[in-house]
Design goal:
single chain, 310 residues, alpha/beta, Rossmann fold, 7-stranded mixed beta sheet, 10 helices, binds NADP nicotinamide-adenine-dinucleotide phosphate
Length: 310
């Protein structure tokens, strides 16, 4: 089969298409013929030596990528059978090996792909959708009426987070540049903030929950705009200084890392099937143009998701 291996960390030229053996499956796994792959900032970070590179760099061949949608061709489990259309995030934050024509996946990391969405949309609704779900529902246990701020609301995680928070009855504000205002409002956000032209002092102590998908100095902003007694979640880490700053203010600050879960994928699948959640696919690249897909994600300007088809 064809796979894209990471020869060494560096530029997109290190992503090499090679022919390797199809993986074999163990008890509890399925073999998936991949139709579409979701590309994330962590793919780019790992390619360049950060992200989860330190967790998987002893593996050979090293095949990055985690988000897949495809068709089961072999099954050694009680849940799925050959012919099932499935999607999920494979072995994150471990070795996903998703940049390949076939991927061996623990069945408990997958869900059936809803029939009403394409493989491209399904591949897009994996890592980013799981992050939004695990942050807002499992970590923050968001409830109706809460005032929620979603930073980077036009991006992969943010565009799912707006839809999920809205579905759960929150009053949602999303940030993006002015260019993406209409997109953010189209997701159901009640209010939009153009982060480049906003007087943030006016928004101090305004939100019960803030989801920060930007990091760096933005974390200070997130603490300032969260009400005492409220929470903020960083998906870009949280150092001791900022954690202490949040605690001093009476704000509960958490950093989370998304993890593979078929149970959570099933919730996402149900929402996609009902049209509650929609994946916005901004760009689709062929497998051989994986490097270009990385460059698109690397701009940091993605609206929704970038997907590669196999
Ligand atoms: N901890 C975890 O488990 C986890 C999971 C997923 C992602 N992440 C990390 O979270 C970050 C976001 O991921 P993603 O997939 O959502 O990225 P993404 O899709 O690449 O995000 C792109 C979006 O970010 C927006 N943006 C950039 N700077 C902004 C700012 N200062 N304020 C508001 N919006 C801004 C852009 O909107 P404009 O063009 O309008 O500015 C663009 O739409 C990445 O660093 C990723 O690695 C962590």
């Amino acid at each position: 089969m064809k796979a894209i291996v990471l020869a060494k960390t560096g530029g997109i030229e290190e992503l090499k298409v090679v022919d390797i053996e199809k993986p074999s499956i163990k008890e509890g796994e399925v073999l998936v013929q991949v139709k579409a792959i979701g590309i994330n900032p962590v793919d780019v970070k790992t390619r360049t030596g950060s992200g989860v590179y330190g967790r998987i760099n002893t593996e050979s061949p090293l095949i990055i990528g985690w988000d897949i949608a495809g068709v089961v061709t072999e099954a050694n489990n009680a849940t799925f059978s050959p012919g099932d259309e499935v999607f999920g995030m494979v072995n994150f934050p471990g070795h996903g090996k998703a940049y390949a024509q076939f991927v061996a996946v623990p069945a408990n990391q997958l869900a059936l792909k809803p029939a009403n969405i394409s493989f491209e949309e399904a591949a897009a609704a994996t890592l980013a959708a799981l992050t939004a779900y695990q942050a807002l529902v499992k970590n923050a246990n968001i409830t109706a009426g809460k005032r929620v701020l979603i930073h980077a609301a036009a991006g992969g995680v943010g565009h799912f987070a707006v839809q999920i928070a809205k579905h759960l009855g929150a009053h949602v504000t999303g940030t993006s540049s002015a260019a993406n205002r209409n997109f953010v409002l189209s997701l159901g956000a009640d209010e939009h903030i153009d982060y480049k032209n906003h007087n943030w002092q006016q928004s101090e102590n305004s939100f019960d929950l803030t989801l920060d998908a930007v990091g760096g100095d933005n974390l200070n902003l997130s603490i300032n705009v969260t009400k005492p007694g409220g929470s903020f979640i960083s998906i870009l880490g949280l150092n001791d200084e900022r954690k202490a700053k949040a605690t001093d203010k009476g704000v509960n600050g958490n950093a989370i890392l998304v993890y593979s879960s078929g149970e959570d994928m099933n919730v996402i699948a149900g929402w996609l099937q009902k049209g509650i959640l929609k994946a916005h696919v901004a760009a689709i690249f062929p497998f051989e143009k994986m490097g270009e897909a990385h460059l698109a994600v690397e701009t940091g300007r993605t609206v929704g998701k970038v997907v590669v088809v196999v």
